[in-house]
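S2.1 Query sequence (Peptidase C14 caspase domain-containing protein)
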Amino acid sequence: MPGNAINSVAVLEEARRRATVTGAPLRPAENAKGAGDDVENLEKLYDLHFEHHEYCATPFLNQNAVDSVDASRFWAILIGIDAYQENPLRGCVSDALLMESFLTNDLGMPEGRIQCLLGPNNPGDPKSTPTASRANIVDTLYSLVHNPEIDRDDNIVIYYAGHGSTYCCPERPHAVQCCSGLCPIKALCPLDRDTQDADGKWIPNISDREINNLFKCISLAKGNKITFIADCCYGGSSSRGLGERSMRTTENASLHDMLHAADERWKHSSNPSKYHSVLSKDWKPHMGSHVVLMACKNFETAKEEQGHNGFCGVFTWALVHALRLSDWKKKTTYVDLVELLDRSLSGQTPLVTGKLKRKRLFYQTA
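Output structure tokens follow.
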């Protein structure tokens, strides 16, 4: 898209404002319905713009989108996994690199503040980084807690593109409700899931409980300006289409193996006394430590599609495109962002959770 292209978001918002503001001299009162019809038509046109726009082309970069951003207060961990042994993906590594490009080229974040954990299908792609193994993911997240260079209330962005999975009750697989109080539990799928470690133990997924505990621990040390972006889904269907970012649970590592792995990790942390076991029946997520942006609802599918520059996640492409729109920069909350994304995605309904979801976006000044 050329640099002087019309900003469809700005046009839509201005049209809506003029049509609804009290006393706006748009039409006589008897034609007020016509103004509403015009706005509705504009919204339809706006939706069609996204419906027919090519994914995976370089998102439109507004040259005025990045102003007064203090990049010295930013840190990021970017995880992208394509090379799963089962159901490999094709756009997750490129999604993580797209996020890296946005953070460095648009926001001006120093590359030294970004840690990439990748699992490319081609080992030669695209640069040498630590692999996205279970141990590397957990250890890298935990390292934020004790990083002396991260000041309190610095912005921390954690991005994940890969498969997700959901564990239902193992004791009653066909029951409507779990009898143990543990399920359902969602999980991220590391590159080495369901393989054996050096001790011969099967490597499990990473439960959402462990991730939540990690974010809580980070927030206690560094503040709650933590944004977790997940381009994956947790669909429980046994039949999954090509390019859908969810997969079945591990065959060799059970739900309890996954939770016990988290408990064992935290027993060796610097402050285990504050740890609330993920095996506890009264475990509850801490919703004030971070904001979560999800690609879709639980019953929907996060997809990747092919464009001119290869495969990419539909959600990630739309997200970066929206973040680069300067008109939303100084006023957009996480809730506003999700409402904007909802217009641009077909078949996926993005979600935002967390007590701080009505705060301004992570890259905005106060």
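The chain has two domains: 1-52, 74-353. The longest helix spans residues 32-51.
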